[in-house]
Structure formats: C-alpha cells, structure tokens
Amino acid sequence: MKVLNFGSLNYDFVYDVDHIVQPGETLDSLNMETFFGGKGLNQSIAMARAGVHVYHAGLVGEDGSAFYELCRENGVDTTYLSQIDGKSGHAIIQVNKDAQNCIILYGGSNRRVTKEFVDQVLADFQEGDILMLQNEINCLDYIIDQAYEKHMTIILNPSPFDSALDQCDLKKISVFLLNEVEGKQISGHEDPEKILETMQEQFPDAKIVLTLGENGVVYADKERRIQQGIFKVKAVDTTAAGDTFTGYFVAALAKGLPMEETLRLCSKASAIAVSRKGASPSIPKMEEVEHTEL
Ligand code: RIB
Q1: Residue 90 maps to a domain
Q2: 75 part of a folded domain
Q3: Of 77, 129, 237, 243, which one is the catalytic site residue?
Q4: In this structure, which residue's CA is closest to atom 7 in ligand 1?
Q5: Residue 20 lies inside a defined structural domain of this protein
Q6: What is the C-alpha separation between 104 and 106, in angstroms, rounded?
Q7: What domain range is 140 assigned to?
Q8: How many domains does the chain have?
Q9: Which of 15, 33, 92, 103 to mutate to test the pocket of ligand 1 (most atoms within 8 A of CB)?
Q10: Can 243 be counted among the known catalytic residues?
Q11: pLDDT attached to residue 130
C-alpha cells in the first residue's frame, strides 16, 4: 500500500502583527519571516516525520527548486513533483498576539495542474493505495474521479472551503478530515452533533474526523464515535496545526493504528506544532511526539 499526497506547496511570508489588519487600515508589522508551507506540503512533511513513506505530487514554479531540497531533507518522495514556468504558490500570513492567523493565498503553479499530469501520476497507483487531498490545487474533481475509478482510499481535507468543492463528487470520499467551519460549510449546521449527523446521512460510508478547536476532536463512522480532548500548550502560532493533525492521521491509518491511539497521537503532534512558529518547521517528528510530556 502506497501513500500519495496530491497537493499545494507555498512559500509562506509570515508577518507578526498586533492585530489582524482591518479594511482601510495600514499596519506596521512587528517581524517578518519566510517559511515553507502550503497545506499539501505541510501534510506530506507531517506524514514523513510520523514515519511514513509519502509521495508528494504537485507543481512548483521557476523559483521552486528549494522545495525539492526541503522534501529530500524531510524524506518526502519527489518522484511526482514537477517544475513548470511561472511562479510557485505563496501565502501572506498575519499572526496576531493571540497566535491566531489569517491567510491570503496566491495559487501560482498550484493552480496549473492538468488532466495529463494527473493521469501520469495516478498511473503508478492502484487499488488500496491512499490518496490525500486538500483544496489548494485545481483539477480536484478530476483527481477524485480518477482515483475512485482505481479504488484508491481517498482522504479529503476540504480546506480552504470554496466553490471548487461543489464540482467534486464528495460521495467518492472515504475519509473527511475537517474543522467546524468547513463542517458548517458542508452540512449547513454549526452544532458539531448536527454536522456529524448530516454528513453521515449524506456520506453514509465515509469516516469523519471533525476537529473542534479547544474542544478536541470527534471521530465518527457507521459503528462508533470516539472523542479526544486537546493537549494544553502555550500557543505561539496555529499555522499548520491542522496540517500536522491530518498528516499524522494519514500516517497512523497507513500503519493500521487503533483509532483511539491515532486521535491521541494526532492531537499531541498538533499541540506541539502550535507551540512554535511557522508552518513546516513547527511539525514534530514521531520521536518527539512519543517522548514529550504534555
Ligand atoms: O495550513 C497552513 C497553510 O495554509 C500555510 O502553510 C499556507 O501556505 C496555507 O496554504
């Protein structure tokens, strides 16, 4: 069984600010740093740091050679990473004093995926292989259709949620990993219980992992519900906390870990990520997750 993550890669320009800039306001930042990010890349790095061999499929631009280096350093397989003309994707991220962020994305090469490229990548994967997807690349609907034809296990993190997801046949998804905001966008409800109920009606065969911020996470499938609380840490930067959770979840699934242990591991890994700055640099290795007392 192989693990493929077809997703975005971004340069993250991170600005520390007193508060998130308001309409019409010009705001001086307190500090600025550049990190590697992108939901796709962060999740691949989390999978690799959790000890799983992951193939990252995606596109970087002319300025994107550094992504290859980063993937190699982290053990992310670059067989299906391709460099094209034009700019790589980037994100402009404000982080306020409460460690909350807001993000503007520039898709760049992430938005230039072609059906030919998808076919080329998926040709090497088959029934039972895991495919991880987020919503920062184009062609998502096509990727889902093709992977479903091949009977791959499709895991979707519908983030950021936008109208591109309306084009996708979400009935083909095996596992949803989402937060309350995305849950509301899919189900029309705010109450977590209602989100789960509605999604289970819409997608009866899917497994659902709903993260609830301070209230932890709940896992639901046809037979059971499992809850896991958060590990309390001093929050420094929440960027990539969700990606860390998702990457660790996929790794645990690939390793066949029991769901209770999986949720505990994911929650601990994402708590560690919240306690430090940046997207990909904040993601812990499995060793650290196992040995850190929280
Ligand atoms: O989830 C965090 C990521 O979202 C950042 O790394 C940024 O690149 C955006 O894609």
Answers
A1: no
A2: yes
A3: 243
A4: 38
A5: no
A6: 7
A7: 3-7+39-85+110-291
A8: 1
A9: 103
A10: yes
A11: 98
In the structure, which protein residues have their CB atom closer than 6 angstroms to any atom of ligand 1?
Answer: 8, 10, 12, 37-39, 42, 91, 103, 105, 136, 239-240, 242-243, 279
Residue 255 pLDDT? 97
Query: What's the gap in Å between 217 CA and the centre of ligand 1?
Result: 21
Judge whether 135 lies within some domain: yes
Q: How far is the CA of 106 from the centre of ligand 1 (A)?
A: 11
Q: How far is the CA of 129 from the centre of ligand 1 (A)?
A: 25
Mean pLDDT by 10 residues, the chain (294 residues): 98 97 97 96 98 98 98 98 98 94 97 98 98 98 98 98 96 97 96 97 97 96 97 92 97 97 98 93 96 92
Q: Please report the pLDDT score of residue 150 as a whole number.
A: 98
Ligand 1, residue 279: give the atom nearest the CA: 6
* Amino acid 187: pLDDT: 96
pLDDT at position 6: 98
> Residue 169: what pLDDT?
98
Could you tell me which residues come within 8 angstroms of residue 73 by beta carbon, excluding any fewer than 6 positions away?
none
